[in-house]
Write a structure and sequence with these properties.
Structural class: alpha+beta
Strand order of the largest sheet: 2-1-4-5-6-7-3
Order of helices and strands: HEEHEEEEEHH
Helix content: 25-40%
Radius of gyration: 18 Å
Number of helices: 4
Amino acid sequence: MKQVLIVCLLLSSSFCFSQANKLQKNFIPAKVDSVKLSIWYMQTKKTSNPGAKVKEYKKELGNTVLDKKDQDTYIRKLQSPESYKQSRALLHHYNIVFLIYNKGKAATEVHISSITGNINLKNVQNQSNYKSSVSKQLGKYIIGLLKKYKLLKLVDEVNLKGLSI
């Protein structure tokens, strides 16, 4: 009886783990023209102050285009399974956006929350999505990019918790 119960538990846990959303190999285009990094100030209903009249608000604070070396490194890190964790926070907040261009058009959008560490990748062409959270390794790399391109000052240090956990 114990053996049957153990087998059932093992099978159900492996079934649940196999349902995890996996990043597809072709999610990011093979040839990338450029990668644009932008920082946004975003307020949602969940992050607004009680009694605030404006519940939804979004404003771009700054942006830059990554140089070729950083672009290649960033793409490599996005394609690595070690860059993701399988946990996600419920809060919907994204203030770091990477747009990956192919043939002059945005091919992939990457939205990251510096508060929660959530990451959403969206292939613009086929509308497929991948949702996860950033690993500590990817989080540190993103903070390094923000420092290098002088965009870190646009993000409160307190709000970097999601990238450093």
